[in-house]
Amino acid sequence: MDFPLPYCFFFLLLLLLPFSSNGQAHSNISLGSSLTAATDNLPWTSPSGEFAFGFQQAGDAGYLLAIWFNKIPERTIVWSANRNDLVQGGSRVQLTEDGELVLNDPSGRQIWSSPQSGGSGAAYAAMLDTGNFVVASQAGANLWQSFDDPTDTLLPTQNLNLGAQLIAPYLEKNYSHGRFMFILQTDGNLFLYTTRYPTTTVNYAYWSTQDSIGSVYRVVFNQSGYMYLAAQNGTMLNSVFSNSVSMQDFYLRATLDYDGVLRQYAYPKTASSSRRWPMAWTTLPNFIPSNICVAIRGPVGSGACGFNSYCMLGDDQRPRCKCPPGYTFFDPNDERKGCKKNFISQDCDHPSQEIDSFEIRDMLNTNFPYTDYDDFLSVDEDWCRQACLSDCYCAVATYNSGHCWKKTGPLSNGVTDPSIGDKALLKVRKGNWTAGSSAKKSDRSTLITTGSVLLGSSIFLIVLSLLGIYVFFTRWNQQKQKVIPPLHVMPEMNLQNFTYNELETATGGFKEELGRGAFGIVYRGALANEDKPLIAVKKLEKMAGEGDTEFNTEVKVIGRTNHKNLVQLVGFCKEGQNRLLVYEYMSSGSLSNYIFGYSRPSWHRRMQIAFGVARGLLYLHEECSSQIIHCDIKPQNILLDESLNARISDFGLAKLLKTDQTKTTTAIRGTKGYVAPEWFKNLPVTTKVDTYSFGILLLELVCCRKNFEINAIQEHQIVLADWACDCLKEGKLNLLVEEDEEAMEDMKRVERFVMVAIWCIQEEPSLRPGMKKVVQMLEGGVQVSVPPDPSSFISTI
């Protein structure tokens, strides 16, 4: 078929035009091109001019290398390369001959570069009309694109793939990493998290796609404004945003804002010059979660606002951070830094003398969850008020239907909302007694001057008064000794012998259960002393014969122990068939809840816990007067005090070894999974059974997961001990802690801890080190050699 010459010429021109991989026309940016950070420097724009790539000035702080909407007055940034490291004027970005984008500051220091997966072969770069900046080959294949490295925004046609994330900015005009993250995890779960600011480690999930967990492959944001979750085969699983908006009439974006809310915005292309995104957003009311103030209620972190502040939703559905009465913002320019007291706290040395100096301020529909340290049932509101006023630790109490919770500072997760039924009873100092105020300093100076004059003129009277006081207290103490009955104390030990009725009263009728074990139940209580110290009462089941002997042994042996990494025995009860042990109360619960919860403790804290448990076992094995084998070391039996120090508890399974013995034989005890192989072979048991259990516990601390997880991602990861051995053998220990940035930066110590753990779990007891050597190896005082492979016999049933 013949074509006229003009048609052939036109067809030839079409073949020569460059096309991107998605068929979109663009203006090529040739290799070697560069841009300089300056107010008059022109950016690289998309063919339509709707998007631009270049330097945007971020206030007076410096310049961002960014992509922004270029046709609206508010140059809204949708991507940036150096959000945490602004550059100054004169900095330069260059598209190198290798196709790499390199950003250097004025001194030539490299700030950022684009990772290029295609190696050589780059031919040009382009700013596309989709808002995507690409570096492409001559054939049009994208070697790198900004869509694969998002910051806080998604644009239509941009997908969020497995492992990708959005990190909110710190503030509206501060683009550095903030406190919230939107992430499609590699296991297919989509979450909104708070972060452990200033790091980007995830902290607490406050939103997720519950109905499609584990099956999501990609988050799709299509050209019609729909955002949905898709399976690997492209099937739509669930909708995130479901508005249908024409891209011909609106500019669209979905942004994780600095307040932790993921919002979808639409800006009319025909808007006047004064129009702003938030105004356009009211025509498209899509945001998750629906109420950020009540959504964030995690046990770790400050909540939607900072510590000592509270959050309430405004009429525009945006959170407002406020300070309670008696508190002011640390930084008025950054309300999310939280609030501080503007009064002096109650004197804990003389709390009763200061009750009249404080008052309760009511806050309706308000709560500060997860800062409770005490709670009371069947009380009225007036009782709750007085209880907080008379307790120097109490910063606020909350009351709801006969239930009173005492809370200490700093207050966290504060929220005021009509859905909350609690009333907050905030304790503040009366009057204008602000900490550091000039009036208070003047009053103090006056008091000091007056006191000095009186003191100087009354020395003789003071001496006489002291003599009188001495005589008075001498007689008063003598009288008191006659009145107060002596405590029943076990001879040679500072242990109180309680009656059953005393412990029943202390626990409120054994009402609040703390935990259960093989030998009984543990209850929370408070002694009737003046200070009302909290206790944990372990109520043992009826025991006779060997059980009764074991109880007597435990009381005598544990009563003589004293170490900072052991839970201290306070007393006991042996009355009829009742056998009870009274321990000091550990306010932070068990290690099991701490490391296997939904938030990972820091690597540093886990190391300190490992050191504490090892030192506690060393004391039991070698340093106390009678050698003790615990026989049931596991996370549930490691408790944490208020400072998160590890304290070994529950010696109900421990066996006493006389000083001239080195081993004992007993029936199988302990918890399977932590139990040494010799238990199952009816072999003599030594302190090495505790070494074995500690090895499993140490691996759990390193990896922050249980030794046996049937739902592990890979079959070879089900048994942690086996997986750890494989990783050590293959030089892939990073796989054990790959989601833990702090541990990843300390891989030498991770390797040492894993090798120590594998030495501890050797099947042959003689190969396991004693706890003294374990402590030395953990602390780095003794070199750790590469351990042999343990036997495949590791009980996990």
Question: Any overview of this molecule?
Answer:
With 797 residues, the protein is α+β, with helices and mostly antiparallel strands. Among the domains are: 130 residues, Bulb-type lectin domain (Agglutinin, subunit A); 89 residues, Phosphorylase Kinase, domain 1, CATH 3.30.200.20; 189 residues, Orthogonal Bundle (Transferase(Phosphotransferase), domain 1), CATH 1.10.510.10. The strands form twelve sheets. It has a six-stranded mixed beta sheet with strand order 36-40-41-39-38-37, sandwiched between helices. β32 and β33 form a beta hairpin. The chain is globular, with a radius of gyration of 34 Å. The N terminus and C terminus are likely disordered.
Keywords:
Agglutinin, subunit A, Transferase(Phosphotransferase), domain 1, disordered C terminus, 45 strands, alpha+beta, 15 helices, disordered N terminus, Phosphorylase Kinase, domain 1
Provide the fold topology.
Elements: H1 5-16, E1 28-30, E2 34-36, E3 44-45, E4 51-57, E5 63-69, E6 77-80, E7 92-95, E8 101-104, E9 110-113, E10 122-127, E11 133-137, E12 142-145, E13 153-154, E14 159-161, E15 165-171, E16 174-184, E17 190-195, E18 202-208, E19 218-221, E20 227-230, E21 236-241, E22 250-256, E23 262-268, H2 277-281, E24 286-288, H3 292-295, E25 310-313, E26 319-322, E27 327-329, E28 339-341, E29 358-363, E30 366-367, E31 372-376, H4 381-389, E32 396-400, E33 403-407, E34 414-416, E35 423-429, H5 438-457, H6 459-483, E36 496-497, H7 500-506, E37 513-517, E38 520-526, E39 534-540, H8 546-559, E40 569-575, E41 578-584, H9 591-595, H10 603-623, E42 627-629, E43 638-640, E44 646-648, E45 655-657, H11 688-703, H12 720-730, H13 741-744, H14 747-760, H15 771-779
Parallel strand pairs: 25-34, 36-40
Antiparallel strand pairs: 1-10, 2-7, 3-4, 4-5, 5-6, 7-8, 8-9, 10-11, 11-12, 13-22, 14-19, 15-16, 16-17, 17-18, 19-20, 20-21, 22-23, 23-24, 25-26, 27-28, 29-35, 30-34, 31-33, 32-33, 32-35, 37-38, 38-39, 39-41, 40-41, 42-45, 43-44
Helix pairs in contact: 10-11, 10-15, 11-14, 12-14
